[in-house]
Design goal:
Length: 116
């Protein structure tokens, strides 16, 4: 499914705290910029593995991060309609610079778990 096809579908809204969506993290200093996630996700991610700018929540820093990823990361919100496209991009991202936030051990993930 393409991004346009996902937007044209009839998704049913979930009115939870994230509207049924999930939070994704992107480590810009850890990307290989190889375009694999872009191709696999049918354009959801850009050529540098970044998520669409209009889904960005904020940029954060975690001094406990391993140096190969850098300390800074971007959090974005992924609407449910794009989960399959994002999963495809994650599978083809060898450097793991994009990940679901709830599947990490970042301190931010721990802090946000209490909000559910």
């Amino acid at each position: 499914m393409s991004v346009k096809g996902a937007l044209d579908s009839d998704a049913k809204p979930d009115h939870g705290i994230l509207q049924g969506g999930r939070l994704l993290i992107f480590f810009p200093d850890g990307t290989l910029s190889d375009g694999a996630a872009e191709a696999s996700s049918h354009g959801y991610f850009d050529g540098e593995n970044g998520p669409p700018w209009d889904t960005w929540v904020g940029v954060f820093s975690d001094e406990t991060m391993p140096r190969n990823t850098g300390n800074d990361y971007l959090i974005s919100w992924v609407p449910p309609i794009f989960f399959d496209m994002v999963e495809a991009g994650l599978r083809d991202n060898p450097e793991s610079c994009i990940q679901w936030l709830d599947q990490t051990d970042l301190s931010m993930a721990q802090r946000l778990k209490g909000l559910r």
